[in-house]
Amino acid sequence: MNRLPFLINKIPLALCIVTLGLVAPTVLQADETCNSPYMSNLIKGQEDFMYVWTLGVDGMGDGSDKLVTLDVNPKSKQYGKVIASVSTGGRGEAHHMGFTDDRRFLWAGGLSDNKIYVFDIATTPSKPTLVKTIADYGDKSGYLGPHTFYALPGRMLIQALSNTKDKGGVTGMALYNNKGEFISSTPIPTDMGGDGYGYDIAVNPNKNAMLTSSFTGSQNYMRPLGDLIKDGAAMKNFGNTMVMWDLKAMKPQKVFAVPGAPLEIRWSLKANDNWAITATALTSQLWLVKQDGKGEWNAKSVATIGDPAKIPLPVDISINKEGTGLWVNTFMDGKTRYFDLTNPEQPKQTYEKQTGKQVNMVSQSWDGTRVYVTSSLLANWDKGGADDEQFVRGFNWNGKELSPTFEVDFAKEKLGRAHHMKLGSNALKVVYEVEPAKRTARSGD
Amino acid sequence: MIRYAMILGCLLLASAASAHQAEKHADVAVVKAKMDFVPPLAGSYTLQRIMPAPDGMVMDTQGKARALSTFTRGHITLLGFIYTTCVDPSGCPLAYEVFNSLKAKILATPDMAARVQLVSLSFDPLRDTPDVMKQYGGSHVKNRDGLPWYFLTTRSPKELLPLVEGFGQDVRASVSKKDGRVVRELSHVLKVFLLDKASTVREIYSSSFLMPQMVMNDIETLFLEEQAAARK
Predict the structure, then answer these.
(1) Residue B30: per-residue pLDDT
(2) pLDDT value at A444 more than 50
(3) Using a CB-CB distance cutoff of 8 angstroms, which residues of chain B are in contact with residue A41?
(4) Separation CA B167–CA B177 (nearest Å)
(5) What's the CA gap between A3 and B168, in Å, rounded?
(6) Residue in chain A lying closest to B87 (CA)
(7) Closest Cβ–Cβ partner in A8, A250, A431 for B161
(8) Residues B115 and B39 sit within 8 Å (Cβ to Cβ)
(9) Quick one: what percent of chain B has pLDDT higher than 90?
(10) Residue of chain B whose Cα is closest to the Cα of A42
(11) Which one of A187, A192, A310, B16 is most buried, counting C-beta atoms within 10 A?
(12) What element of type H or E holds A10?
């Protein structure tokens, strides 16, 4: 993967006649609250774009998985519109994405085709391009279903959901360098009380602490949900653990029993905080993983989400940058809920709003004033008929109420099922528009 | 490539700082990464082979053109990109201080010191001439204590670029407004690279993970790995 040719080719010489300088590298703690702390280039102001990793639907448009770019800057004339779309040319259960540590590339995974698509989002942030497809994930690692893409310096750690051998839930993580070359694989432990299942990754660098969570294998996530929930034996094949790792050594330190498929993990970003939180999909609880006074890590259930008996299916969470509030999306009832995390030992739900007939991912701007929601969980788990809405919806959050701002209907636009979203900005562009009038004789072009 | 070389050159020439500030690093209160844990013992873990280090031409403090591999092969190497006028507390001055403190610690173990070298490579070739790098390196340049610390630069942006790209050192142009003026800047996020004697990158540290004790343990881990290989 070429990293700098866009610089080589496109930075205008006009720049040399204005004020320029090498400036500060900065200590970066996180980005839009949920990305790797090793990732540079925060968007602390208004985001310009949203990249939506979208599942292709047979008969809808070109039917392919695609990266859809939305304009999400209210000052833009194209606000709330689709401004670009890049198809992969196939349908492979598009699911999650993650930026490289330099935020120049966006890696996106297919849960069924086992491929990783690398998009250049830095040359032209408004129009990403597919620059590489990594197809050796299964062959190199033995894992299936690349899910979480977690940036480490110069490399990407990729948590899978399944394995190529029996397509069950026992899985692991594979490490690639930023050029897309496989480095190593690490299994999720099946000893120490572990079940070997995987889902998300989250790191606290100051603690050398990495947490992983657990979901289910391809046999389950590719199966129609209606069939699956009637199959008692299959329903036992969900993850019930989280693992605390020594990140440097990449060795598991402790396995926590967290029943009911703990999914997304969010560390508090507040300085000196020593806890992370997750939500369990099947048991509908918030779990806290916290270090005690002796330095020991422990996990405990701290709240319920909705009525667990009704299986609202919490599917995504988003923590604010202060570590004092948490958005929780529940797929079945289509609700977006806000929990006060002022005391993480006792989260309190303070707000809820039905934001769709089915909702999956929830993301927020760095300042927490903008909240975004998508609709699709998995191709075979989304609802049917009129309940199968496919959208991205934007909201403003004033601390009391979510107010709708825009909506893109992904079915009407013939795009597909809207799943994961990441934010982009023109400020992250590595090239500038050329100003011909200011070019000098030395420009060489 | 030529075009970019010229571009980077003029970018750097137009830098806001007007003159070289030798050993500016000594005046900056660095912001250190917080390390709130006991790191794993050296040798208790394996460092991944991330990628081969790139090679290209550089200049030493005498102005002599050399292959970068001259300074990255045969020893355990800690390499960081810097520029001498950088004053960011969490950037180049931090790297300098970490290198300096590590050098003292490594020298306490002479066997290991004989196997380690440090490299500071400028990515401001038009201003950081060999003479400037010599001033920046100060007493470290003469290598009187037995642990080499090389202060390298390149002849031109054209020679620098393949190295920057090969290592994956983030360099980004940005635009901001200061005092009502549009200011265009070239920024980077600090990265330090640990290489084994085969010039393979084994660890990369960014600002939030550049913890001297961790780096020390990693260097010792590579040293122990070398010793174990030699015994086979």
Answers:
(1) 62
(2) no
(3) 172, 189
(4) 31
(5) 7
(6) A24
(7) A8
(8) no
(9) 57
(10) B189
(11) A187
(12) helix A5-10
A21 and B34 in contact by Cβ < 8 A?
no
Q: Which two tokens stand for residue A382?
A: 């989304």
Pull the structure tokens for residue A130.
């597919």
Give the residue carrying structure tokens 């990140």.
A247
Q: Is B182 on the interface with A (CB under 8 A)?
A: yes
A255 by DSSP, 3-state: which? strand
Contact at 8 Å (CB) between A228 and A267? Answer: no
Query: What is the arithmetic mean of pLDDT over A114-128?
Result: 96
Range among A227-231, B7-11, B28-32 rated most confident:
A227-231
**pLDDT above 50 (res B18):** no
Q: What is the pTM of this model?
A: 0.90
Is it the case that residue A189 has pLDDT exceeding 60? yes
Interface of B with A in 136-175 (CB under 8 A): 161, 164-165, 168, 170-175
Cβ distance of B124 and A27 shorter than 8 Å: no
CA–CA dist A335, A316 (Å, integer): 11
| Residue with tokens 């602390």, as numbered in its chain | A44
Tens digit of pLDDT for each residue in B48-79? 999 999 999 999 999 999 999 999 999 999 99
Distance between CA atoms of residues B30 and B104, nearest Å: 18
Chain A CB within 8 Å of residue B185 CB: yes
CB B104 within 8 A of CB B146: no
Sheet harboring A155-163: ordered strands across? A143-152, A155-163, A172-177, A182-187
| pLDDT score of B206 | 86
Q: Among B212, B191, B202, B192, which Cα is nearest to B34's?
A: B212
